Automatic annotation (TrEMBL), chain A:
<dbReference type="InterPro" id="IPR001348">
    <property type="entry name" value="ATP_PRibTrfase_HisG"/>
</dbReference>
<keyword id="KW-0028">Amino-acid biosynthesis</keyword>
<dbReference type="InterPro" id="IPR018198">
    <property type="entry name" value="ATP_PRibTrfase_CS"/>
</dbReference>
<protein>
    <recommendedName>
        <fullName>ATP phosphoribosyltransferase</fullName>
        <ecNumber>2.4.2.17</ecNumber>
    </recommendedName>
</protein>
<keyword id="KW-0067">ATP-binding</keyword>
<keyword id="KW-0963">Cytoplasm</keyword>
<dbReference type="GO" id="GO:0003879">
    <property type="term" value="F:ATP phosphoribosyltransferase activity"/>
</dbReference>
<feature type="domain" description="ATP phosphoribosyltransferase catalytic">
    <location>
        <begin position="60"/>
        <end position="216"/>
    </location>
</feature>
<comment type="pathway">
    <text>Amino-acid biosynthesis; L-histidine biosynthesis; L-histidine from 5-phospho-alpha-D-ribose 1-diphosphate: step 1/9.</text>
</comment>
Automatic annotation (TrEMBL), chain B:
<feature type="domain" description="Aminoacyl-transfer RNA synthetases class-II family profile">
    <location>
        <begin position="36"/>
        <end position="271"/>
    </location>
</feature>
<keyword id="KW-0028">Amino-acid biosynthesis</keyword>
<keyword id="KW-0963">Cytoplasm</keyword>
<dbReference type="GO" id="GO:0016757">
    <property type="term" value="F:glycosyltransferase activity"/>
</dbReference>
<keyword id="KW-0368">Histidine biosynthesis</keyword>
<keyword id="KW-0328">Glycosyltransferase</keyword>
<dbReference type="InterPro" id="IPR004516">
    <property type="entry name" value="HisRS/HisZ"/>
</dbReference>
<dbReference type="InterPro" id="IPR045864">
    <property type="entry name" value="aa-tRNA-synth_II/BPL/LPL"/>
</dbReference>
<dbReference type="Pfam" id="PF13393">
    <property type="entry name" value="tRNA-synt_His"/>
</dbReference>
């Protein structure tokens, strides 16, 4: 009666940092991707799993949100940083997986931090991958942020005069330190979320709901263990 | 093909597009099919103007779309006018003014284009066609169910398959919040978390434990209607919220009884896009589509701020989404007829379903000419010869 039975669900995963931490989550959720998935040199972009009705795609972390928002992927794992930046209403973020922990912060050169008084700012120039989050964060405290959008290597911006300050993800703080920067303001704590497309959840409540339940169990199990 | 110096004139403002053959005809046909289904259930068509005074367009339920409305000044009356961003408000205005003496419930239908200031990332269109109905002047579960059933019936008539309906209670969260008395800041964080189905966000919103559990319970009730209603029944809802939940259950029962096998889900915390709704609301999805094809629900028709309003329900079908989710009907065969074919000879072919393309200049080779004009057939020696 329905064409739903033979249709595959697509799960979008980010390349890089989160991918490694996601592997044990997948194992506990009972998802085994095909062998090529573990090979970082593989050119393949789409992978089958032990579930005939579930495929995985591997895309850039910012693109996970876009694929899921537009319904090109039904499920995904994305950092809260990416979800905050895009704020797509079509994405439901039902589960905090507790992996990929880090924070989004404002940083500036060490030598500036001593004399800088953030209370006096009216306008700041910021190099960042997150112009939306940055603008909103500063607007909320009455500061206009002029954002220079970069795709990586933000830490270079202050030393080369592109901008004095940056907004970026901070994990150990090591990269900041190596580049003579210091964290001066905390914006948000970040973890990775299991996300689903809104229309996919409405039209396939059982199948999508099944995966939400599985990932919820895994997340709760991990939280108890920790 | 060389590029013409005039090509740049084809550029349209963002979110606006030309509909070309065969899409323009497809849309018009789908609108006709919809209006016909509405008429078959006694809904009579009205046609409000494209532009009207701001205070009538943006009063009552129209206030929710104020930010999305193009405005212009009427040089004649020197008053501000708005270009309609939605037609429901206009139909409601007609119902409470010019048709206020008509018996209730009043059944009206409409079809036309609306225009909005901004599209969204997912739906960049700023102009799109809406067709829909309004059932004005009664507040009953039967009326709520009629809107859902008619929307489903209409979408099927247009040729969309694998439909499912999501039923919502956009005022439930406010009703629950009214009963649990939480600080405003915690409520706005809760609202945001509920919009994103973010259970972690509910826990972190800063509401007390009991309220947070209640909202998490509402969130978990989203899903297949039977399971969701059972979950909803287990929650200890404040009185006003419990009454709304009971109404939702009644509507689900009526729709399920009329449409066996239609997948029904409920989502008691859905709110976005339902800003002016005051009761049971719904969205219709198709498995193939990535957005809702129709939305509707209960609202206050008229101008509550002036003390003139009636309970109403209705729905709007979004034609762009519908056309993306439905299969294109087969195109009409096109028959080329040579120069000098009498006008009267066209009719018999037309009644057989052909579009008759008459030669208006002489062509030495009718087959070649027919092909050049994208015809599927040519009239040769009195026969429609397929090419």
């Amino acid at each position: 009666m329905s064409s739903e039975a033979n249709e595959k669900l697509i799960l979008a995963l980010p390349k890089g940092r989160i991918l490694k931490e996601a592997a044990p989550v997948f194992a506990r959720a009972g998802i085994e991707p095909e062998a090529a998935f573990a090979d970082p040199d593989a050119r393949q972009l789409r992978f089958t799993t032990n579930h005939p009705d579930l495929d995985i795609i591997r895309v850039r972390s910012f693109d996970v949100a876009t694929f899921v928002a537009f319904g090109a992927a039904h499920l995904g794992i994305a950092g809260a940083d990416v979800l905050m930046e895009f704020d797509y209403p079509e994405i439901y973020a039902p589960i905090d997986l507790g992996i990929g922990k880090c924070r989004l912060a404002v940083a500036e050169p060490v030598e500036m931090a001593g004399s800088d008084d953030p209370r006096r700012w009216s306008h700041v120039r910021i190099a960042t991958k997150y112009p939306e989050v940055t603008r909103k964060h500063f607007a909320a405290r009455g500061v206009q942020a002029e954002c220079v959008k970069l795709s990586g290597a933000m830490e270079l911006a202050p030393s080369l005069g592109l901008s004095h300050r940056i907004v970026d993800l901070v994990d150990s703080g090591r990269t900041l330190k190596d580049n003579g920067l210091v964290e001066i303001e905390h914006i948000a704590d970040i973890t990775s979320r299991f996300i689903v497309n809104r229309a996919a959840l409405k039209t396939r409540p059982e199948r999508v709901g099944h995966w939400i339940d599985r990932f919820r169990e895994v997340a709760q199990g991990a939280a108890r263990a920790a | 093909m060389s590029s013409n110096d005039n090509d740049h004139r084809g550029l349209l403002p963002a979110g606006l597009a030309d509909l070309l053959p065969p899409d323009a005809a497809r849309e018009a046909r789908a609108i006709d099919l919809a209006i016909e289904r509405f008429a078959a259930f006694g809904y009579e068509r009205v046609k409000p103007p494209l532009v009207e005074f701001e205070e009538s367009l943006l009063g009552g339920p129209g206030a929710a779309l104020s930010q999305q409305t193009f405005r212009l000044m009427d040089p004649v009356s020197q008053r501000m006018m708005g270009v309609r961003p939605d037609m429901t408000v206009q139909v409601a205005r007609i119902a409470v003014t010019r048709l206020k003496h008509e018996p209730r419930p009043l059944r009206l239908s409409y079809g036309g284009n609306v225009i909005r200031v901004r599209g969204s990332a997912l739906k960049p269109e700023r102009q799109f066609a809406q067709v829909g109905t309004e059932l004005i002047g009664v507040d009953s579960a039967e009326a709520d169910a009629e809107a859902v059933l008619l929307a489903v019936d209409t979408l099927r008539a247009i040729g969309v398959s694998d439909l499912s309906v999501d039923l919502n209670l956009p005022t439930l969260v406010a009703a629950v919040a009214g009963g649990v008395n939480q600080p405003e800041e915690a409520m706005s964080r809760l609202r945001r978390a509920l919009d994103r189905k973010d259970e972690g966000g509910i826990a972190k919103a800063g509401a007390d434990r009991k309220a947070a559990d209640l909202f998490a319970g509402l969130l978990r009730a989203a899903g297949p209607a039977d399971k969701g209603l059972a979950q909803l029944a287990k929650l200890e809802l404040p009185e006003a919220a419990a009454a709304e939940a009971a109404r939702l259950a009644e509507v689900v029962k009526l729709v399920a009884a009329a449409e066996e096998g239609l997948p029904l889900t409920i989502d008691p915390v859905e709110y976005r896009g339902l800003e002016y709704q005051t009761g049971v609301s719904f969205s219709v999805f198709a498995l193939k589509g990535r957005e809702e094809l129709a939305r509707g629900g209960r609202y206050s028709a008229g101008y509550p701020e002036d003390g003139v309003s009636e309970s109403a329900t209705g729905f709007t079908v979004y034609m762009d989404a519908v056309l993306a989710a439905s299969a294109a009907p087969p195109e009409r065969p096109r028959l080329y007829v040579g120069l000098g074919t009498p006008w009267a000879d066209c009719a018999p072919w037309q009644s057989k379903g052909y579009a008759v393309v008459r030669a208006v200049v002489a062509a030495p080779d009718p087959r070649a000419e027919a092909k050049r004009l994208r015809c599927s057939h040519a009239l040769i020696d009195g026969d429609a010869v397929p090419l």
